[in-house]
Amino acid sequence: MWELVKAGGWLMTPIVVCSVLALVIIIERSHTLQFNKVAPSRLREQLITRLRENGDIGRTQLMNVKEKTALGDILATGLLYRQYGLESMTMHMQNRASVQVHQLEKNINMLGTIGAIAPLLGLLGTVLGIISSFLTITDGAMQDPTMLAAGVSQALITTAAGMIVAIPALVAYRYFQRRIIDINAQFETQAGLMIQELYDYHLLASAQSSTASSRLSIEDSIVQERSFGGLDSDKTSIAAV
């Protein structure tokens, strides 16, 4: 293996560096972009259950939830601002979701860049190797033309090495991009379900206020009907007299 690296020339050095970087990024992102670590499946249910049982969740507990997972950061942020109404809650959740998606995309673009430049580095090494071989023939230093084949084969090593690095890097790049899209969709789904459940269980500030106002309006209408009914009965008694 080391002999192939030496035969490829100095351009093998950046190709090897690209391969090491790509391997590190793939391992790190594979560990980070796991659904159970980014978006636990039962987190929303646990938060809603705690809200229904206790009526509220302490700020300290919500801050602990925010620090553990990306989905926890989004949902806990929404619960921290639910007292200010649906619009404020939704806006803050969207902001945190954007921040979390940006963090999930960390080093993904670098992986795509490695997949793009590694074959170019290999092709450059091949071109330089072929040029060097033909210059040797032109100068008359190569007495045996068959030695040209050996020079070209050595030059092609860089192209092969560049492709070996680029193919896994591009595959991983596309895979991680799709994984981030799926995680973002999960963020939106869980946030929407939490808002719906807050409405259903009357745990949202706007829902509570609207419910209270509707109750007040109903009570006012009942009082008015009773007062009008009393007036009608008084009029009837006066007419009878």
Features:
single chain; 241 residues; mainly alpha; 10 helices; 85% helix
Describe the protein's topology.
Layout: H1 2-8, H2 12-32, H3 35-38, H4 43-54, H5 59-68, H6 70-80, H7 86-104, H8 108-138, H9 147-200, H10 205-240
Question: Strand-and-helix sequence, N→C?
Answer: HHHHHHHHHH
Strand share of the residues?
Answer: under 5%
| Regions with little confidence, pLDDT below 50 for 5+ residues | 207-219, 230-241
User: What level of helicity do the residues show?
Assistant: over 70%
Overall pLDDT level = 82
- What radius of gyration results from the CA coordinates? 34 Å
Q: How many distinct folded domains?
A: 1
Give the overall shape, derived from the CA principal axes.
rod-shaped
Count every helix, treating DSSP H or I runs of 4 or more residues as helices. 10
Q: What is the end-to-end distance? A: 119 Å
Structural class: mainly alpha
By DSSP, the count of extended strands is: 0
Largest sheet: none
